[in-house]
Amino acid sequence: MRQREEEFRLQMDQKQKQWEQEMHQRQAAEASEQAAAAEQARVHAEELSRLQQDFEARQKKAEEAAQHKIEELEKKAKKAAAEEEGHRQHELAMQKLEEQLMTVMPLVKEANLIIQELQRPHRLETKMHCELTAEGKSGAVNVAAAVMLNGVRLFEWNPETLENRVFILRELLQRAEEEGLEAVQDLPNEEDPLWDPIEVERLVGVAQVLLEGVLLQVENKVDARILSSEGQAVGSLTVEIVPIAKDGSLGIPDEEVVEEPQELLGSCMKFLVSVPGASGLPEALANDVRVEYNYFIDEKPHKLPTVYGHNCNPDFKYSHTFVQDPVTSRFLEYLQSKLVFRVYGRDAAAAEAAEELSRASIKKQEEAEQLKAQQAKAEAERSTAQEEPAPAPPPNLPGEVSQGGLANVGPQAAAEPDSPKAPAVPQEKSQASLRLAAEKAVDPHNQPAPPSKSRTCIIL
User: Fold this and answer.
1) Contact 410, 442 (CB under 8 A)
2) Which of 145, 147, 299, 310 is the most exposed place for a label (fewest CB within 10 A)?
3) What does the alpha-carbon distance between residue 236 and residue 342 come to, in Å, rounded to a whole number?
4) Using one digit for the tens of pLDDT, what is the confidence trace for 407-452?
5) Coil, helix or strand for 329?
6) 275: closest CA among 304, 313, 312, 311?
7) Residue 190, pLDDT score
8) Residue from 225, 228, 239 nearest 202 by CA
9) pTM of the model
């Protein structure tokens, strides 16, 4: 029994050990499986994270590509709309130009014919002017009539003024046909349709300079061409636009340069505008040259000092610092446009014509005043002569009767005792005739004879 118990105990120990080994193996296997599962889960999570990141990156790239494509499409749409609007505006401008030409050219021709009939030295010419805007686009083309005198442009009329003056010229022509040319000569200025203040100062041309350099924070030094209103180059204007750093020095250092213009919003921006001078101005207009330009929202234009005298290459030596604090989106939009400089000069020929016309007008006025004074003097003399009483006739001699006093002789006057009587003389034929004439003269039924200084001696 004891032996069997020992064997049974040994068997039980062996089975216990075997079961423990199996349990360890099973636990090890489970741990290994768990570790494998954890590793597999980790790998799967990493793969999933990588796929998620890849998907997000691809999605972001696709969104950026789509956004970029949308922006490109919007830019193309805006460009197409701008081109279409520009084309429409161009067609409207050409239509307006054609209408103005159809209105102005016949009026100019008619005015020249009337002026020729009135024997006036003036002549009208049709002119076209193109306006330039700050956006760099050509503005409206305007038609005007230039009034010339001996080849010198005095002034210009717009179509409305031209139509009004031609109407007055028609009336003058009709008056000249009815009353003669003398009636329409030497008219006062307020009645003369060919008179206006002479435009001595004229626009030489316009120069444009980009402001984009300020937006990009780089210097911009350029010799800008000056274009006349007819589109011809009439010289150049030297302009320098330099941004200013925070410490006040010219130029922006690298550490202050921004990549995007939007980063400038809210900051303080300064830049310097310098205009050293101009060159190549036309001889006829290079007198008392001055320049002006408009800046951003300033109401009044900025003016450069005038260079007096005749100078085709004037030196202005002008500089001005502009400060924008803070920078706004509207200011950033303005920096994408241009500064437009307008160059003015004095027309020497027009000034000389103005002086001649002024002297002629003064002379004409003096002559008119002299004539008026002479007429007033003559009128005063006539009035004085009419107001003075007629001189009394001298006393009659005995036997003498004035011719003017015969009408006042009546029966009472003849019976007055103080009246002298002529001595009685024998009557002759000639004396009878004289008596008969005297009786007829003193007859109250007869009209009195006009007074006269001549005397008639009647012998009674």
Assistant:
1) yes
2) 299
3) 12
4) 444 444 434 444 444 444 444 444 445 444 544 544 444 444 444 4
5) helix
6) 304
7) 85
8) 228
9) 0.63
